[in-house]
Amino acid sequence: MMTEDDFTTCDLTTCSSSASEEALNAANIRETEPIFSVLTGGMRERAGDTVSPGTCRGGGGGGGGGGSSCASPTTTSDTESGIFSVESEVCVEHESELDWFCGTEQKLICSRCATAGPCRGHAVTPLASRVTAVRNQLVDVCEKMQLQALRIDKFIEQTLETKKQKLQAEASRARDQVLAQVSAAREALEKEEQRVLEEVQREQERVEQCLLTQRAHWSQALASLSQTRAHLVHTLTHTADAQLVTSIQEIAERVEYAEGVGNPCDTEQLNLNPNCSNSKLLRGLWAAALLLGPNAYGSSLLKFDERTVSPLLSLSDDLRTLTFLQKKPRHSPPYDPARFDSWPNALGSQSVSSGSHSWVVDVGQSGAFKIGVCYASLERKGSGNEARLGHNAQSWVLSRYDDVYSYCHAGKEVPLQVVRRPQRIGVLLDWPSQTLLFYEPDSCTVLHAVTQHFEAPLLPACAVTDRSITILH
């Protein structure tokens, strides 16, 4: 980068053209400072290169005086720049031409100002050299600007245009991918919908056929029974005693036939099998729509009801973490009819009787736990199955014990195939469809789902016998 140190200073009469050429060559091969630095005086001359305007470099004696061989200052013009020249101004103090430039005070001066005036000892430069350097600076700046303009134009015409074309191609591929995925999902959904609807239709026709068969059978039995009864009544009221006694055999046969008709009874064959509408695909899509859709449900205020917490558990201050106590506490909590006294259970603080609700429990630290729902009327006292989650008709839970996962209700366990150990387990309760669903939030994988008619509001229910579990918000 060129600085004022690169400018050669000489006296007013003997400054050689070779010095100017060396300065120009240096200006051409070095990186140039910004023009703003030049114009604000960012360049400084080296003091050792400064030449007093009154010093002679040719033959003859030194010192200024009438006998000096140095020529007097002359008017200087910037003919080397090839742009334009300016007439030199006159120093007010010395009435001499301002053909020098003081780099220290950043102003034009005359030779006398530099030798005996206020700028004596300052870094001074011939005005012509200074002008040449500044013009060279401007030329370099303009060239840089031109190169920058070319780069910008190239960026606009090539880079941005290429980016635009690439963007259009990528956006088109992304749209095609979305459409393809939606089309595949729609096709699979339509096929599954058709299959399930046909299964429901077949089940409906089966039940209707059973109902028709039962109706025909029992209608015929009713008619036969009515006819037999009418005959027996007629025999009882219109037959003479002697004849009645001799008709005992006939009467017994009719009574035996009437007794063989039997009593009608309701059976499961006369009901629609609820499993006919079961579909893993539909259930998974439905759950994903609720859990991942724009209107995802969640119970952000769900906590444990401290009144229900068993003495075998400790409850955190934020009422969200249950920890199993390895040793029984010395002092039992005060008696509360809502508290479990034998099983390590605790219930949630909010009941569900409408809408859709979901909550997530962190189970990563526990190897034995139960998560689910129960009726508020669940027994709280004693060590019987009435207060044991999953072992009565009032609770539905997902259980883990010894790396075995199962669904428990009314004392019946359904083993669950879990591919990987869940760190979190979510519960989704959709009241309108009477569906309870357990899922893994990280992959939104449905672990188990059950549809059952719930007769009363449900409370979140948990149990833990290993370390701790936490309700996440």
- What gross morphology would you assign? elongated
Average residue pLDDT: 81
Using the 3D structure, state the CATH architecture of the domain at 296-329 and 338-472.
Sandwich
Give the CATH H-level superfamily of the domain at 296-329 and 338-472: SPRY domain
Total DSSP helices:
7
Decide which structural class fits the backbone: alpha+beta
Question: What is the β-strand count?
Answer: 16
The helical percent reads: 25-40%
Write down the CATH topology of the domain at 296-329 and 338-472: Jelly Rolls
Q: Could you state the order of secondary-structure elements as H and E? A: HHEEHEHHHHEEEEEEEEEEEEE
Largest sheet: 7 strands, antiparallel
CATH classification, class level of the domain at 296-329 and 338-472: Mainly Beta
Strand order of the largest sheet: 4-5-16-7-12-13-14
Give the uncertain stretches in residue-range form. Answer: 1-52, 54-86
> What is the CA-atom radius of gyration, in angstroms?
52 Å
Biased composition (Gly residues): 56-68
GO molecular function: zinc ion binding
Region (Disordered): 45-80
Domain B box-type: 86-127
